[in-house]
Write a structure and sequence with these properties.
227 residues, alpha+beta, 37% helix, 3 helices
Length: 227
């Protein structure tokens, strides 16, 4: 079942289990979350929602108290000899400070609850124009991609890079970007070894004359075909 609200996003469930949840970001993009199998995403999401509500309530209380404190301060300023008014203004100011501390604590708790929720899912965040994506898988590995008119540049960590290159078969060619900025072509030779060459097919070597390895890479490049 898919529940879609144009104002918030979509929820996809099957047999009562949440499969995918998507929400709009503050910048007009989309965040898509897939709960980790066997995790506690539902509980974490409920806790995060409750924590967010607590922040909203605390901030609202600060606003009301601030208005009251401003009115009390004006009253006290109009007659500094009115000790009761002065005391009321000081008390109102102290109440604002106390409520601000409560709101700050609520925000910290909300941030922690949100982090716990995200830790229970694989996440894809897409920019409003669709050209940028941030990805976190169920194991916490992350990657980012930027799409241009000519292709997509996918930046990732060593673990994800190794997994991606493991998918190459003999004869495949994968454009990659090294940490030193070199544009390379990764491939697998007849013996199953990972090799790196320059885009023109010549041998590639680092500035120290060493052969490149997967540890030297920072991104994969997908090039759109022109024709």
């Amino acid at each position: 079942m898919v529940v879609f609200n144009p104002a918030t996003g979509a929820v996809i469930t099957e047999g009562g289990d949440l499969l995918v949840e998507s929400t709009f970001t503050d910048t007009g993009g989309m965040r898509i979350e897939v709960p980790n199998e066997g995790g506690d995403y539902t509980e974490a999401a409920a806790a995060a929602e409750e924590a967010t509500a607590a922040v909203d309530e605390a901030v609202a209380a600060v606003r009301v108290a601030t208005v009251d404190a401003q009115m009390a301060a004006l009253t006290a300023a109009s007659d500094e000899t009115d000790t009761a008014a002065v005391a009321a203004a000081e008390e109102a100011a102290a109440a604002v400070a106390e409520l601000q501390a409560v709101a700050a604590a609520a925000q910290v708790a909300s941030d922690e609850a949100e982090a716990a929720r995200l830790a229970e899912s694989a996440t894809v965040t897409v920019s409003a124009d669709g050209t940028q994506q941030s990805i976190k898988d169920a194991n916490g590995n992350t990657a980012t991609s930027i799409t241009s008119d000519t292709g997509v540049l996918i930046t990732m960590g060593l673990t994800s890079m190794g997994q991606a290159l493991d998918n190459l078969a003999a004869g495949d060619v994968q454009p990659v970007l090294a940490t030193d900025g070199a544009e390379l072509a990764a491939g697998v030779d007849a013996d199953g070894n990972l090799v790196f060459r320059m885009p023109d097919g010549t041998e590639a070597a680092t500035a120290d004359g060493e052969a490149y390895t997967a540890d030297d890479l920072t991104a994969l490049r997908l090039i759109f075909s022109i024709g």
